[in-house]
């Protein structure tokens, strides 16, 4: 039986781990080494990605393309796939805004492809239960099935394109914002000489507060 082929664009630390999860679930995972750095090549080789050489070959051969790259490059990366008339399912799993996700959807769909919005919460997947890939859009369930029983839990949301990016953005805003607030609070306590007293009160009144969030 022919395996589903997933093309990974710019496989970094997260992308190579997600690709390894897809391989473990039974897919063929390919990448294009043309123009990529030695570090990227090393990660792709370690994750056992198949090198098809060029982006044109990756677009032509892939049933799915998954983009995990620096957020500010997400639109341009999508344009590069659309310019080669990718007609499969394109998944953008970058930390972009819902508006940017919809912009990318228009680019991909305008070229004849289908689009799924993705948002990753957690570290590069190595063990089931630690990382989740949220997906939204008409093909979300189809993409989620690519990771069945792998280290990455893929969750198809009920929302339309933009929902997965909105979840990622709001989750990150809370976790990063609360951490920054706690750092500022503790810095003030240190400046006022009451750091030990504050830590003692935190331990008594909110012991569930993670210790790493109490550190400056």
Looking at CATH, which topology of the largest domain would you report?
Rossmann fold
Estimate the strand proportion: 15-25%
Kindly give the count of domains. Answer: 2
Structural class: alpha/beta
CATH superfamily of the largest domain: NAD(P)-binding Rossmann-like Domain
Rg value: 20 Å
The H-and-E topology, N to C, reads as EHEHEHEHEHEEHEHH
CATH class of the largest domain: Alpha Beta
The major pleated sheet works out as: 8 strands, mixed
Shape: elongated
The count of β-strands is 8
The residue-averaged pLDDT reads 91
The percentage helix is 40-55%
Strand order of the largest sheet: 3-2-1-4-5-6-7-8
Number of helices: 8
Query: What distance separates the N and C termini?
Result: 55 Å
* Name given to the CATH architecture of the largest domain: 3-Layer(aba) Sandwich
Q: Uncertain regions: pLDDT < 50 for 5+ in a row? A: none
What's the gist of this structure?
The chain has 216 residues and is α/β, with parallel strands linked by helices. It has helices spanning 13-24, 38-46, 55-61, 74-82, 98-110, 140-144, 163-192, 195-205, and strands spanning 5-9, 28-31, 50-51, 64-67, 89-92, 114-121, 132-136, 153-156. Helix 2 links the parallel strand 2 and strand 3.
